[in-house]
Automatic annotation (TrEMBL):
UniProt keyword list: Signal
Segments crossing the lipid bilayer: none
Pfam family of the protein (one): Acid_phosphat_B
SUPFAM superfamilies, per database record: HAD-like
Listed name of the protein: Acid phosphatase
GO cellular-component term (any): cell outer membrane
Length: 263
């Protein structure tokens, strides 16, 4: 059956190829699987070294604490590209329809994520999911994660959502600090710089974001694992000053100005 919003003729949506890549590309699936396999290979060393911690928020004396990992949810462990497909086909685009999509509890796992998290849990690691989905979506997010096969520790709230507590804003620093109070955080996973450090909050251009990455060069691929997300993120919005009120034409003009050709 044809979707009601599917246009009769094709006019390329700005995110058509990015959505196509995230939704269908074998290379995308291979890259996420490779990232999780690399983390799996690194995990035994992380557990054996009691001085090993991935969180900037971790205090002193964490060596005696049980190990934990923190993963973002969207585009890190759950694939929301079917929701993005609706947008490029003329249907609802974020934020429209987002809550309804989450409540469907049908997002499938990102390739490699279930296998890695189950392995980590089998090694005694508590797996936390720190997401900027609103707290009103915690129940359906938890149910989707369970349905997708992700491990859930018993007796512990491991799905930490935005606004679940007054201090839990879109900056995930306070939630990482909350986990660090009782656990030694050995690995972080995400698709945005904010999944690793709050320093990204103050960046105003791509060069400043690069500087954040460079400042933590030794952590990438050993303690910090970033998943590819061509669909959305700070890498895009920083080019137009995170001013979401701008028209698409103005956003595109600023995007073009932010890029450089041959030097």
């Amino acid at each position: 059956m044809a979707l009601a919003w599917l246009p009769a003729c094709t006019h390329a949506h700005p995110k058509l190829t990015a959505t196509l890549y995230g939704n269908t590309a074998a290379e995308h699936h291979a890259s996420t699987r490779a990232i999780y396999m690399a983390a799996k290979a690194q995990l035994p060393a992380a557990l054996a070294d009691t001085t090993w911690t991935a969180a900037l928020e971790q205090g002193e004396g964490a060596g005696d604490k049980p190990a934990a990992i923190i993963l973002d949810v969207d585009e890190t462990v759950l694939d929301n590209s079917p929701y993005q497909v609706q947008g490029v086909q003329g249907g609802p685009e974020y934020p429209d329809g987002w809550d309804a999509w989450c409540k469907m509890e049908s997002a499938e796992p990102v390739a490699g994520a279930v296998e890695f998290t189950r392995f980590a849990a089998s090694q005694g690691v508590t797996v936390f999911y720190v997401t900027n989905r609103d707290s009103s979506l915690e129940s359906c997010t938890h149910a989707n994660l369970v349905a997708a096969g992700f491990p859930m520790a018993e007796g512990v709230d491991v799905v930490l959502t935005k606004n679940e507590r007054p201090e839990w804003t879109g900056d995930k620093t306070t939630r990482r600090a909350f986990v660090a109070e009782d656990y030694r955080i050995v690995m972080l996973f995400g698709d945005q710089l904010g999944d690793f450090t709050g320093e990204d909050e103050a960046t105003t251009n791509p060069s400043e974001r690069d500087a954040v990455v460079d400042a933590h060069a030794q952590r990438w691929g050993s303690q910090w694992f970033v998943l590819p997300n061509p669909l959305y993120g700070g890498w895009d919005s920083v080019t137009y000053g995170h001013d979401f009120g701008l028209s698409e034409d103005e956003k595109n003009a600023r995007r073009l100005r932010s890029m450089h050709g041959p030097r």
